[in-house]
Amino acid sequence: MPRFVSYKNFFLLSVLVGITLLVMRFTHLERPQLTPMEAAIKDSLAPVQGALVRIAETFRNGTEFISSLGRLSEENKALKEQVSLLKGQLYLQEELKQENKRLKELLQYQDRYKQNFSVRTAAVIGRDPGNWFGIVTLNKGSKDGIVKNMPVVTPSGLVGKIVAVSQNTSQLMLISDPRSGVGAMVQETRVPGVLEGTTAGTGETRLIHVPKDTQLFDGQTIITSGIGGTFPKGIPIGKITGVSNEPTGLFKTATVVPFADLHRLEEVLVITTIYNPDILPPTEGN
Predict the structure, then answer these.
(1) How many domains does the chain have?
(2) Does the model's pTM come out above 0.90?
(3) Residue 21 lies in a domain
């Protein structure tokens, strides 16, 4: 029996080898044409093969698309950061430009009136929370030569006066504060009056104690009169925007809008020394 099994195995092995050789012969790549069976099999499998190729292509494209989305997201993030950086640089450049313009105007004003008084430039560093429209804090104090009652101006016009001083800071009372009082007059007619602040917080002021028979008109310019000694004569204050009679019937009152923008003060000029309070020529603030 074992001998018979051995012959049987040898016979099967020989058949398999023969079939393999035949397959190799009939499937050789350099044959001029396919066998009928191969052709039939390839034709029947062609649609399936095409579908598989399309599926594989779709999958590959989808994978590449997802990968490209990731790259695009990173590129978009980088571009946004670059845009933010450039915007920040533009904002800083614009801020420096505005600051340079303001400082140039302060220097020009100082040079224009250097024969009349000397000034010290100061920056606004705070406002009184309890009196937002009336008191501001400056970054100059007694060590910088600032003392109480010194006038404060901008190139546009009068701002107020110093009411309190520490070593490094000082408090400026604006002309819009109800406690403020400035000797003033109408530039065109030289009619005197007193300029005081209002309680509305609008930054407006009013000229009071003007005789009833005085002609007051919208658009007239108000300047300092020099009376009282605190403010030099001729500093521009503002323009009249309204006229009314006082309740007593003896005087008129004029609403005056200051030339200086009291709500947006950033740098001011503190008049530290007045050489001659009577030689400052009256000029309009705008």
Answers:
(1) 2
(2) no
(3) no
